[in-house]
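Worked example 2:
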Amino acid sequence: MRLFIGIALPPSLSQLLAQAAHTLIPTEGQQRPRITWTRPENMHITLSFLGQVDPARLDHIQRSLAAIHAPKLHLQLNGSGSFPKAGILHAQIKPSPSLLNLAEQVFQSMETCGFPRERRPYTPHITLARSKEPIRIPPHKADNPAFQQSFTAHELRLYESITRPEGAHYEVKAAFPLL
């Protein structure tokens, strides 16, 4: 099973971001890259990607995540951007101390389960689209008010990513309340 740990978005915010994402890519004057848009129900903030995991490890992962104690998070979107080389269009999340603290707790928890810590610094974001080609956002497109929203996260989730012909589907394996 392919697993990751993340924070779900309110459905209304996911819908708003899905609509706003389409305004970021030029529709004329340039060749538009071939893009796979993230479906609203799949939008989330990844805290840790575990990859392929033996199902026998699931119980240990869940116990480790259940031991995390963190408050509800008040999260603020902080514009849009891209990781051009990776071909990812995203909504930026302001890296608040509480979010970074939760991410650190998740990293430490997963290290105790035998998962190596990612080498890159943690960059909180919501993936809006992917492309096999670089994606760049024209500067005048990046200031859409949809990318300045805020919301409260009430739980941490363990997801399984299931590949289907119509695209990825994320199934919640377990949820852990933020107090």
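The CA atoms of residues 19 and 98 lie 28 Å apart. Strands lie at 2-8, 35-37, 44-52, 73-83, 88-93, 125-131, 150-153, 155-164, 167-177.
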